[in-house]
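As promised in the previous annual report, we have extended the structural survey to additional targets. Below is the entry for Beta-lactamase.
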Amino acid sequence: MTVTAIETGKARMKTAQRLGREGRSGIGRKIDIFRDHNWVEPMPIFAYLIEHPEGRFLVDTGDTWRNSVPGYLPDWNPFFKQVQIKVAPAEEIGPRLSAMGIDPARDIAAVILTHMHHDHTGGLDHFPHNRILVTRESWQASRGFSGKMAGCLPQRWPIWLRPELIDFTGPAIGPFAASYPITRDGSIALVPTPGHATGHASVIVRTPDLVYFLAGDATYAEADLRAERPDGVTFDPALSRRTLRAIKEFCAAEPTLLLPAHDPGVPQRLAERLVF
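The corresponding structure token record, generated without further manual editing, is:
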């Protein structure tokens, strides 16, 4: 098995989104983002390709160049003015996979979504014939007006999108009370990591000598996880901190590569097999 990081453009966010101020509630952290005038350096938007004997699996789809089209991001929602997304057409996940000799619509056994924020679902159009997996809780929370307010773009999803909804009915994995096996051999599994978004999930990939923890946006960077610092997006800082502690406990228990969706350290970590 192999795990490959595929960059699909860059995201720039406020410093208050990257790390929330200690002691602030979920609402207070949102207010801090709007008040903040400082921006972090552009961060990568990663999707992850898992090549397994049962097929190729893609975790998240990155974002789309259409962010640059006036009106694509709704002007009425101030959330979208707090993030800058820059994706060239050739940087979308479809062209990226094609450049690797992979037909995105035919050669991917399943697309696994950690959550439904726009920078993780923007490439869904490239996968009309594929299984799409997402937690039931994430799907329900991302629809309608409340989903639009929370950073999702259900009005931009493909009209054919009917994902398979996942409930965590599988066995506990380490500190995670339940799981959902993706492959028959159980070497790829989904675990609940809520906090950044309702129903957020992470993907565990277990190989004979190494474990990969694909964290989505449960944390933005390994340093943030080590310090157990929730971001500014979380709706429940206490829940996010419990999730961070669970991930940290899991990663410390055996040789594990931590792979968040926006961590600039990912390429080096993968190339040098730098475990947590």
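The longest helix spans residues 237-253. The CA atoms of residues 49 and 58 lie 5 Å apart. These points will be discussed at the next consortium meeting with the crystallography subgroup.
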